[in-house]
Amino acid sequence: MSTPTRTSPPIGGRPPRWDSRRRGTVAVPAEARTPTADDAGTPPPPLEKVNLAHAFTHLSGPDTPRPVGMLHGQPVHLVRLTGNGPWCQHATGDALFFVTRGHLRVELRERSVDLEAGELLIVPRGVEHRSVTASEALVLVSAPTHHEDAGQSPPP
């Protein structure tokens, strides 16, 4: 009796059936998944898509974030950034900057990262950073709220 040959999955494909990590789990297609109530019995918010171009037209002004949702317990905001933001760091989560229009430089204490439209940067928790723009940049930002990081500036 011969031993079956185990091959690696194709790039981007699913793991083979014999993969031990899959033992005892049932795959549920994304279309079939439905949000469930949290531990307090609060129903989840309705699933709604966000049109970024439309949402950015409704911003009240520069440097005023507009909440568009939550991701892993962190708020997701749209913001029209101008000038230099305050130095901040987040003890409870990472900060994500996704530039949709313009140019943004995220300064860290040891280096700077320049972002153009279509690029994103994830700043790990605890890393001090600030946003800098020479002109206006439209940015999608996700970072812990300032009450979660007591004593810290609100995002970004």
How would you summarize the topology of this molecule?
Elements: H1 52-57, E1 66-71, E2 74-84, E3 95-101, E4 103-108, E5 112-116, E6 120-123, E7 129-142
Antiparallel strand pairs: 1-2, 2-7, 3-6, 3-7, 4-5, 4-7
Description:
It holds the Pfam family Cupin_2. It comes from Corallococcus soli. The longest helix has 6 residues. A hairpin with a 2-residue loop joins strand 1 and strand 2. The protein is mainly β and 156 residues long. Strands 1, 2, 3, 4, 5, 6 and 7 form a seven-stranded antiparallel β-sheet that branches. Helix content is 4%, strand content 34%.
What does this entry show, briefly?
The protein has 156 residues and is mainly beta. The protein has a domain at 52-142: Jelly Rolls. The chain has one helix at residues 52-57, and strands at 66-71, 74-84, 95-101, 103-108, 112-116, 120-123, 129-142.
